[in-house]
Each structure stands twice: as C-alpha cells, then as structure tokens.
Write a structure and sequence with these properties.
Elements lengths: L8 H11 L10 H19 L6 H4 E7 L8 H9 L17 E5 L2 E12 L2 E17 L2 E6 L28 H17 L8 H4 E7 L8 H11 L15 E5 L2 E11 L7 E13 L2 E7 L5
Parallel strand pairs: 1-5, 6-10
Antiparallel strand pairs: 2-3, 3-4, 4-5, 7-8, 8-9, 9-10
Helix pairs in contact: 1-2
C-alpha cells in the first residue's frame, strides 16, 4: 500500500474517535488508519457527492463488485452511481457518518445505521444496519462486498469471488485472539448449535442487540433463542462457516456467503454476503450488529 500517512495522523485519530464507541479499543496501525481515511474520503467524494469523475483516483479499473445489482468494474460503478443524480458540492465530512468503521490489513469495514418504515406500522420507523467491506490493493479500492438482495427485473450484476478467502490471514494480538474465541462461542456454539446456557459465560448482562427482531439484554436473548434453537452436540466445525473473519481490537466481524433465490426465476440463485459483528470488551460480548431488517 502506498497511501501516505505523514500528514494524516491527527485527522485520522479524530476520525476514529468519531466512528468508534468510546468503550471500544482500536488496534489500527498508521497504515490501517490511512486505509480507513482513504475509503471514507472515497465514499464522501464519489458516492455521497456523486463526483464519479474522481473514481479513478480511488478505484482500480478492474474493481471487483459483488453487489448483485451493480455491474463489476470501475466503469460499471461509474455508470450506476452517475445515474443517481447530478454531482453536489463535496463537503468536508460525511453527512451520515458510519456507526462503526475500522481497517485491518488491506480490508476496511464500515457499518452504517439506517432507518426504515416499520412493516407492522407504517407510521413508525425503526433502525437497522448495513455494511460495506472493501479490499485495497496497490493504493486503490479493489473489491467490494455488502448484503444486497437482487432487485427484480434488472440484469445480474456482481462478480465471482475475487479473493481466495482461505488464504486471507491477519496477525492478531493475544487480546484479539481471545476476543475471536469469545465471539465464536456466540456465533457457533450458541447460535448454530443452540447452547444458550453458554450466554452467561460470554455475553454481558447488558448486551446490546441491534437486530430489530431480537430483544436486547442477555436474559431476553436467552429467552428468545431458547424458543427457536434446540441444542445439539457441539462440534469443532461450523455448521455455517464464515467466509471471512476480521478482528480489530474489540470488534469481531464475520462475513457469511449465502445463496438466495432469484426473485425473477426460482430455478436460479445468486450469492449474497451476510454480516455478523460483535464488540467484545472486558471478556464479554457487549454489542451485536447484523444485516437483519424488521420482519
């Protein structure tokens, strides 16, 4: 990576404090902080302000797009976002800042908080989360994932996986490794194998739940999942293994590749990339985010 960080340290530190909860610990090095700033600048200038003529400054020409509704390649990206409206003034900050954002190695994770109409009562709204995952290569955004459902009646977009997930590795600190182990108990042993009795060992009593269909608090979590998950013998392997896991300080992010039915042709399927993420502090899972919208 060749992104300069010499003059960015103070502004990046302020940015990190602006998008990470104060209780969370960031483990980003200077290069990772620069990568995060680079991606958020790209988002602010090219996506938020629709200055798609600046895309070559930030994106590789052979940019890999996994969103099923957008054609892969930088040209496809520019065509899609250029068609959303005229460019606007580039502001010094993002209008809607991410709820959480961090970088690890060549990867940048951005979690957004959104608001939608409550399907049970259209006069009310509720909050949910989306994510964007970017991979940088040679100083440019090379690959993008999010959780996108196919829009009916439009051609397939997206691209096959560009990176070999099995070969993606990160150097974790001892604390990050411990945080990963704790998160794995929740995501694998509790959620996939149904052992909700383990929640007391790995989840804080004040556990914060951002999935709009699941109640917040550890006790409510246990009550909810004990009714829909029956315990099975825990095995070493995952029933549904994450394609990619990224740990940065307190945050453990997992991306799962799913196969969904094409709304236009039920004989066809397409890939979608779900995410689950927790914040682990003081040896317990404190907070959870995922791709769920309200049922």
């Amino acid at each position: 990576m060749r992104i300069t960080v010499r003059h960015a340290a103070l502004s990046v530190a302020a940015l990190v404090l602006g998008v990470l909860p104060l209780t969370a610990q960031s483990s980003m090095n200077a290069q990772e902080q620069a990568n995060l700033k680079f991606v958020l600048d790209w988002w602010r200038e090219v996506i938020q302000s629709r200055h798609v003529e600046l895309a070559p400054k930030y994106q590789a020409e052979d940019y890999i797009q996994h969103n099923i509704n957008i054609q892969t390649g930088r040209a496809g990206f520019m065509k899609f976002f250029g068609g959303l409206g005229q460019p606007t003034t580039i502001l010094p900050e993002l209008t809607n800042k991410p709820a959480v954002a961090f970088a690890k190695g060549d990867y940048v994770v951005v979690i957004w908080e959104r608001e939608g109409k409550d399907p049970a009562d259209p006069t009310k709204t509720y909050k949910y989360n989306t994510y964007d995952l970017l991979r940088l290569q040679n100083g440019k955004v090379q690959e993008h994932w999010d959780y996108a459902l196919k829009t009916p009646k439009i051609p397939y977009g997206g691209a096959p996986d560009g990176v070999d997930y099995s070969k993606v590795t990160f150097k974790l600190s001892p604390q990050e490794q411990k945080n990963l182990e704790i998160a794995t108990v929740e995501f694998k042993d509790i959620l996939q194998y149904g052992h909700v009795e383990l929640a007391e060992k790995v989840m804080a009593p004040t556990y914060i739940q951002h999935n709009p269909n699941v109640p917040t608090g550890r006790a409510a979590f246990v009550d909810f999942f004990s009714r829909i998950r029956k315990p099975e013998p825990i095995k070493a392997e995952w029933k549904d293994k994450p394609a990619l896991t990224i740990v940065s300080g307190s945050y453990v992010f997992m991306m799962f590749k799913r196969t969904l039915m094409d709304p236009d042709d039920k004989s066809k399927t397409y890939p979608a990339y779900w995410f689950d993420m927790v914040r682990v502090d003081d040896g317990l899972v404190q907070e959870h985010w995922d791709s769920a919208v309200k049922n």
